[in-house]
Amino acid sequence: MRRLLMMVFLSLLVYFGVSNIALASPITFFGYDQGQGSSSYERLLEWPNAKAAELNLLQNLENTSKESFEEIGLLNRARVGYNEVSSVFDGKGSFAGSGYSLYCNYDESYYGQYPISGFKYLETANRFYIEFEDPIGAMGFYGIDIGDTDDHYRDPTTPATLRIRVTDSSTNEMEWIEVPHETGVTSGGIFYFGFYDPDRTFSKVEFVYIGDGTDVWAFDDMTIGSPVSPSPVPVPSAIWLLGTGLVTLIHFGRKQRH
Ligand SMILES: [Ca+2]
Ligand SMILES: [Ca+2]
User: Fold this and answer.
1) How far is the CA of 22 from the centre of ligand 1 (A)?
2) Gap from CA of 217 to ligand 2 centroid (Å)
């Protein structure tokens, strides 16, 4: 009896131990449309590759909230600090950052930065982060004029690149998610980057500026959500066997006592 119980305990340990180890990395999406050139600050009129990446991500999500920055009360060419914009994504998140980290609403290309939707977007040359009231399982965003490091202001030997860092809400661990954008590309390009994780949720997403080069970036049409729930998975045979084993054990134990 004791040996049987020990075997049940060991099977449980193996089953749950293995499923904990099998945590997958986030699944990522990326699409890039090249800008018109470093001497031209004309905006792109369409961005099919970036758009396709956005649609691919959204197909995998539910409970989405989109932030287009259009609701933020700004006059043309005005800027506000992060502390003035505490509620985004339908009130589910808030931005924070420091230094030159501002919202803008230029309705034309400003040195390569411009909006995707409407005429408002987020413009920054610094690290910023978004914190979420309830943890999210997915996020995507448009990045505009990111990676044109051989252009004005920039140090081409240490180009400015964007990386994002997520905080796992259950373990508080930080993890980098690489944004696979090029550097040394033309001004005014547009990419879409997104990720979802079927196994974990995130309470904080940090946009981190790496490199000594100075660059100014724009972000627009960010979406948060959760991965579409998988259809009910049939109970694994191991669990069936375990259950059947336990029932037999209990039955056997009772019989012995009687
Ligand atoms: Ca917008
Ligand atoms: Ca730029």
Assistant:
1) 38
2) 5
Would you state the structure tokens that stand for residue 31, as one six-digit string? 């699409």
Which tokens go with 187?
A: 């001004």
DSSP letter for each residue of 61-99: EEEEEEE-STTS---TT--EEGGG---BTTTTEEEEE-S
Query: Average pLDDT for residues 105-134, to the nearest whole number?
Result: 84
User: For the residues 188-204, what does the mean pLDDT come to?
Assistant: 94
Backbone angles phi, psi at 190, to 5 degrees: -130, 130
Tokens of 171: 């373990």
Q: pTM above the 0.85 mark?
A: no
- Residue 216 Cα to ligand 2 midpoint, Å, equals 4
133 alpha carbon to ligand 2 midpoint, in Å? 31
Q: Which residue has the tokens 């049409």?
A: 221
Name all domains of the chain by residue range, CATH numbers in brackets. 28-227 (2.60.120)
